[in-house]
Amino acid sequence: MNLKESVRIALRALAANKARSLLTMLGVIIGVAAVILLVAIGTGVQDEVTGQIEGLGSNLMFIVPGQYGGGMGGEQSPPSRMFTVEDADLLARRVDGLDAVVPVLQSSTTAKVGNRSLRVMVAGANEKGTVVFPNTLVEGRNYRRSEVDAASRVVVLGSTAAETLFPNRDPVGEKITLNGQRFTVIGYYKPLGGGLAGDQDSQVYIPVTTMQRVFSIDYISTIVVKAADADRIERVKLDIKRVLTPRYGKEFTIFTQEQTLGLLSDLLGTLTYMLAGIAGISLLVGGIGIMNIMLVSVSERTREIGIRKAVGARTYDILSQFVIEAVGLSVLGGLVGIAIGWGGSWLMGSYTPVPTAVTPWAVSMAFFFAAGVGVFFGVYPAWKASQLDPIDALRYE
Amino acid sequence: MSEDRDAPRRVVLETRDITKRYRLEGIEVEALRGVSFSVRQGEMVSIMGPSGSGKSTLMHIVGLLDRPTTGEVVLEGQDVSSLSPNALATLRNKHIGFVFQSFNLLPRTSAQANVELPLVYAGVSGAERARRAVAALERVGLGNRLGHMSNQLSGGQQQRVAIARALVNDPSIVLADEPTGNLDSRSGIEVMAILQDLNAQGITVVLVTHDERVARHAERVVKILDGRIQSVEIVNDRVLAAQEMRMLPAEEVAG
Ligand SMILES: Nc1ncnc2c1ncn2[C@@H]1O[C@H](COP(=O)(O)OP(=O)(O)OP(=O)(O)O)[C@@H](O)[C@H]1O
Ligand SMILES: [Mg+2]
Predict the structure, then answer these.
(1) Ligand 1, atom 24: nearest CA belongs to which residue?
(2) Are residues A131 and A239 in the same domain?
(3) Over the stretch B125-138, which tens digit does the pLDDT of each residue have?
(4) Cα of A325 to nearest chain B Cα, Å
(5) Could you tell me which of A260, A304, A330, A362 has the fewest CB atoms within 10 Å of its CB?
(6) Record: contact A309-B89, CB cut-off 8 A
(7) Are A281 and A320 part of one and the same domain?
(8) Mutate which of B30, B33, B57, B229 to test ligand 1's pocket (most atoms within 8 Å of Cβ)?
(9) A 290-309 residues with CB below 8 A of B?
(10) Does some domain include residue A117?
């Protein structure tokens, strides 16, 4: 008997028991759809995050206090001393080939306008901040060097902050209260979309010096450096080390853009694999469901097997009939699961803020895993069927 | 029946001193105790005996569904005693057609698909398979029931489908175990008429029954008792099912 006949017989058997076939497939459908959807989410987030980091330009470096080993799980120790604005100034003066040195400080607080209030993230930087974190103004201007030097109470709003606090009116020139202090709005930005550290659009931007004064902080959290030339990044890194080592010893770490990307990619990649693994377990459970039903089916159809053997079916014919039936269940379930997972990813990407990206490898992996599950869990019941003695099978009631 | 009745005909099937022992929870049952007989091409032979005498056991062994404990089965000149299950399946497919007391059709499957089954395993392709299945069903008078599911047919019709299935591969021998056992007398006579008709067309038929009258439809009756052949008799006053049918009270003929 050829393969075509086996497939025909198997499909007919599945069609004869539609409800049961469908319920058996459900496990595989859910498993495959879950693998595809979760991997799509993982990949989507990974793509977006790395895309954003890459968008910042490849010649950025982040200098943070404390010692961090390379990669995940490297040796780490918490910082004992924080950087100050003076460190940033020192780097700007003593290291050549830099476009910008930006001291950064972040904190959350409540912004108030009249009786409206909003929880916002306040980002403090200097006038070069817009060089390393590009934003587009809708109206107004960014703060100037003189305002940083004078610690002026001026603020530029992210788009969400602007809309929420000043609905339907131009915020430029208006007053806003941050952490109990009054600020003048000098500009606001276009929307950016989802961000790395929370939602950048609900941030507000003020000079770092003002921020230290208003929040009574004398340190900064990070120094962001932009090298003029991406090719000279290693040279710049050495110069930075030379300047900072006398002050901090080994208690600081320079992350280049590449390292940051690598770290995040590693993390998100691991997360994606974990999600795929969890979804894979449900596929496995679906496979056990298939085996269960196939065993029931074999004992229900003992007489049929006896009849087939009596008229000339060989071991291989019975074996292939039942294996193909199991594989048919898992493959059909896999196809439906792909449709649902793909559709679900598309819906999620279109109607929710969660980014999704369906990758061919996730789809093919889920599909072939499902088919493999069908073969693996179908072989034992099929083997049992093929080994039945024709007489015993014919006598079976 | 056939014109060369007295000419020596080829031996299709032969058993040589076969025994069959079953062991059930330590108790040995000797179902067959040395049975030797042969069936010639074109013959119609009955194997007759009371319940438990070993008829079905014998039929399963000569039908290559089961193996004897000792002794040999020779089919078309080939000793099949030591063949593998798959080789036996192939031989069953090629040489043997079964008709069982309980029909043994595939449920929820059309008459035609049931009859095609042996051809499927013989590797016959679709169109040819359909043609031969339809021809076999026409031969048993069911040309108008091709698409009926097996459970939509009467017992007599189901048994005729089973006969068509037994025929479709042009087997060397058709083995029928109590083919009328589950049928009313009219359907039983119809089935016997078909078997006799097929035999008249040259098909070798072995009929297993406990019923003397059914057995006398054959040319020869092998009587067995307690797993041994008791006697072999030539039937002189053979029952002709076609005549019986004419004697039945007038009624529309099923089919
Ligand atoms: N699988 C088996 N295991 C144990 N004993 C068996 C088995 N099959 C048949 N027997 C025994 O072998 C003997 C012959 O059985 P068999 O079925 O051949 O009888 P039979 O002549 O066909 O009877 P019937 O007319 O009732 O069908 C019986 O005693 C039966 O109990
Ligand atoms: Mg019997």
Answers:
(1) B51
(2) yes
(3) 989 999 999 999 99
(4) 17
(5) A260
(6) yes
(7) yes
(8) B57
(9) 303-304, 306-309
(10) yes
Q: Which of A250, A277, A294 is the last residue of a domain?
A: A250
Nearest residue, CB atoms, B93 vs list A16, A312, A316: A312
* A40 assigned to some structural domain: yes
Same-domain pairing of A176 and A314? no
User: A240 and A152 in one domain?
Assistant: yes
A153 in contact with B, Cβ within 8 Å: no
Q: Which residue has its alpha carbon closest to ligand 1 atom 12? A: B31
pLDDT of residue B1: 46
Q: Which fold has domain B41-64+84-247?
A: Rossmann fold (3.40.50)
Tell whether A314 lies on the interface with B, counting CB pairs under 8 A: yes
pLDDT digits (tens, 9 = 90+) for B8-59: 789 999 999 999 999 888 899 999 999 999 999 999 999 999 999 999 999 9
From B90, B108, B169, residue closest to A16, measured CB to CB: B108
A258 occurs within a structural domain: no
CA distance A269 to chain B (A): 51
Does the structure's ipTM exceed the value 0.85? Answer: yes
Domain spans in chain B, listed from the N-terminal domain onward:
41-64+84-247
Distance CA A45, CA A345 (A): 12
Does pLDDT of B225 surpass 90? yes
- Say how many Å lie between the CA of residue B116 and the centre of ligand 2: 26
Which H, E and C letters describe chain B, residue by residue?
Answer: CCCCCCCCCCEEEEEEEEEEEEEECCEEEEEEEEEEEEEECCCEEEEECCCCCCHHHHHHHHCCCCCCCEEEEEECCEECCCCCHHHHHHHHHHHEEEECCCCCCCCCCEHHHHHHHHHHHHCCCHHHHHHHHHHHHHHCCCCCCCCCEHHHCCHHHHHHHHHHHHHCCCCCEEEEECCCCCCCHHHHHHHHHHHHHHHHCCCEEEEEECCHHHHCCCCEEEEEECCEEEEEEECCCCCCHHHHHHHCCCCCCCC
Among the partner residues B86, B122, B169, nearest to A315 by beta-carbon distance? B86
Q: Do A1 and B85 touch (CB under 8 A)?
A: no
| Residue B91: closest C-alpha in chain A | A312
Q: Which residues line ligand 1 (CB under 6 A)?
A: B 22, 24, 29, 31, 49, 51-57, 210
Would residue A61 count as lying in a domain? no
**Residue ranges, chain A, pLDDT below 50:** 71-73, 197
pLDDT above 50 (res B2): no
Same domain, residue pair A312 and A242: no
Residues A143 and A167 in one domain: yes
Domain of residue A201 covers 81-250
Q: How many domains does chain A have?
A: 2
DSSP code string of A23-39? HHHHHHHHHHHHHHHHH
Specify the pLDDT at position A259.
Answer: 79
Residue A58 backbone phi and psi in degrees, to 5: -90, -5
Judge: A314–B60 Cβ closer than 8 Å, yes or no. no
Same domain, A244 and A269: no
